[in-house]
Amino acid sequence: MEVLLKKPMPLRFHSRKIKRNIYIDNISSLTATEIILLKDELLSALVDLDDELKNIAWDSHNKTGEFRDGWDQTVQKKKQVCNAFLEELQKIKLHESEKLFRKIYDDHITSLIIKNIGHEKYKSLIKQARENTINTINKIKNNQQEILL
């Protein structure tokens, strides 16, 4: 007897602002604008879901409204999905701050090098580093082609 294991479905959030389904596995492919829209929508959804939970609790306490069994668990699950997406968005944000750090660092190191060795020597070293990088990449490509043969 063969047992088939199902691969779990990736989390999905239907974004009304972006007008499509967003899968948590593909969140890094979003544009900066889409990330801002998604984050705003997720935060709004969490507020709405909290309000909904409060209303459910109030109705249940006062016995004034109909209380659907399991509705509170559904709302909690939706909150978990929103929070999972927000965590992934935070990782992207951290990645962007690393890029910002690298850019600022590169600017500072460049100005310090130019200050110490002069602009012409700096340009010469940059050109040499570029040529060395291209040569190294070509060697790697050639080694990969040899391995494939």
List keywords for this structure.
mainly alpha; two-stranded antiparallel sheet
Characterise this structure:
- This protein has 149 residues and is mainly alpha-helical.
- It has a domain at 12-96.
- The protein contains three helices and two strands; from the N terminus they run E-E-H-H-H.
- It has helices spanning 32-62, 71-117, 119-148, and strands spanning 12-15, 20-23.
- A two-stranded antiparallel ribbon has the order 1-2.
- A hairpin with a 4-residue loop joins strand 1 and strand 2.
Shape: elongated
Distance between the termini: 41 Å
Number of helices: 3
Share of helix among residues? over 70%
Low-confidence stretches at least 5 residues in length (pLDDT < 50)? none
Using only C-alpha atoms, the radius of gyration works out to 26 Å
Number of strands: 2
The chain-level structural class is mainly alpha
SS strand fraction: 5-15%
Query: What's the mean pLDDT score?
Result: 83
Question: How are the SSEs ordered, and which strands pair?
Answer:
Elements: E1 12-15, E2 20-23, H1 32-62, H2 71-117, H3 119-148
Helix pairs in contact: 1-2, 2-3
Outline of the structure:
The chain is mainly α and 149 residues long. Helix content is 72%, strand content 5%.
